[in-house]
Amino acid sequence: MSRTQDLPPSASSLALSLRDLGYSLETAVADIVDNSITSAANWVGIVCDLSLPEPALCILDDGCGMTEEELILAMRHGGKGPLASRSESDLGRFGLGLKTASFSQCRQLTVASRKSGVLAGAEWDLDSVVTQDSWTISILDEQDLASVPGIELLTDQGTLVVWRKLDRLFEEGAGHCRDEIVNGKLAVLRDHLSLVFHRFLSGEIGGKRLTLKVNGHDLKPFDPFCRPKSTPLPKDTIKIDGSKIEFRPYILPHFSRLTPKEYDFYKSRSDFISNQGAYVYRNGRLMAWGDWFRLVPKGEATKLGRVQIDFPSALDEAWTIDIKKSRAHPPRVVREHLRQILPKITGAAVRIHKGRGQKLFQEAESPIWERYADYGQIRYAINRSHPIICALLEQLDENGGKTMIALIEAIAASLPMDMLYSDYSSDPKAISAKDTDASEALDRLRALRLGLFQNSPFAPDQFVRIVQSTRLFDSHMSLVEQFAKGEIE
């Protein structure tokens, strides 16, 4: 007959192993911010003071705080596990985040919390755990708490998390190099938090705006759906075990509808090609993004498509949420529903591009380029009926005309489509024609007038329309109108 035996894990081995779950600084801090939001905090401050003899990173909030008993439970590994019932505002999952996130960056974790005016504190020291091979924490007394960095910032209620012995944060450098590297990581942290918690920062979740600061700088929400300039598609809902999952598709605006400042902001923060796809939120917190879950390939045609997917914590098991809360794999029913609505999303995204293209082709009565769709094949050709082409052909003899036709057909056939696609996909606003000064523009206008009309009279409006079709004078249209009216020569 078998017998049972307790077999607790080695504290030393397991504690060191838990450091390597794959946290980055930004995902680790986000895990701590989750706890602050769960505790109904109105503001969260993150301070990394590199000037201290022993540098520390502090995360402070004004949430409900914890009693000593609650704090000890929070410091326990697996204190409130995945099977525990959680409220809609609870962003926790495994009861491991505070510890695993902290130890991924530091070797000493101190937590001080004040509730109902009573201050409590506890501390994990990884070196002590390894040396003693024991899961032993220190319960801090009043004197210990007085020396904790940032303790003076703790208000009448709230919680302070302090990371010391920051070996992982500083592992890539020392001295001035260290500070530069850390400041670079803090910049990434700010961008990450402003995206992951953008719905809390904007007040969309819970009806109140969360204030989030990094070294005193307020974070602004970064909305990956570019609202209100994006185009929303109809919302859809499905249920799994009585819990709702909501789908809200959006089509981002064509870059031409964004101001230069807006475009640069979105381009620097959210590359359109790589970040298309589903954005998965659990209780309003962004968990994973930029993925079509292999249902369709990422490409230029779909780069403006985004889908906001919301699910409650009751469906964590179905979504296989990981400890870092940075990965979410949709259950089969969600994938199938997403597959059904994807044609609407991709179709609308494609129409944004095609609609813009058609508008450009219609801006002049006789565009220089024409688009043809023949039996499913798309090609572009130079318009032989354009007034400039016609005027030039009239001035050439038969052989010269044939050579001219061969040239324009060669130009059309040799368009560097791969290069254009690559450049347009990565940075469409960087593609522009060579800008000319006013003097060079006037020389070109004189040459066009001579080639089109010789010295004969012409209608100013007609000349302006022809000039517009060339796109050579987009930055000098007032000069074009003055020239056409004969106000300048």
Q: How would you portray this structure in words?
A:
The structure is a single chain. By secondary structure, this protein is of the alpha+beta class. It has four domains: 11-218, Histidine kinase-like ATPase, C-terminal domain (Heat Shock Protein 90); 231-358, Ribosomal Protein S5, domain 2 (2-Layer Sandwich), CATH 3.30.230; 365-421, no CATH class; 432-489. Helix content is 38%, strand content 19%. The chain has 17 helices and 16 strands. It has helices at 11-17, 25-38, 68-75, 97-103, 126-132, 142-146, 175-196, 198-201, 260-269, 316-319, 332-361, 387-394, 398-413, 417-426, 438-453, 460-470, 477-484, and strands at 43-49, 56-61, 108-115, 118-125, 138-139, 158-164, 211-214, 217-218, 231-232, 236-240, 243-251, 277-282, 285-291, 305-311, 369-374, 377-382. The strands form three sheets. An eight-stranded mixed sheet has the order 5-4-3-6-2-1-7-8. Strands 9, 10, 11, 12, 13 and 14 form a six-stranded mixed sheet that branches. It has a two-stranded antiparallel ribbon with strand order 15-16. A hairpin with a 2-residue loop joins β7 and β8. α2 (25-38) packs across α7 (175-196) and α12 (387-394) crosses α15. The chain is elongated. Mean pLDDT is 82; it is low at 355-364.
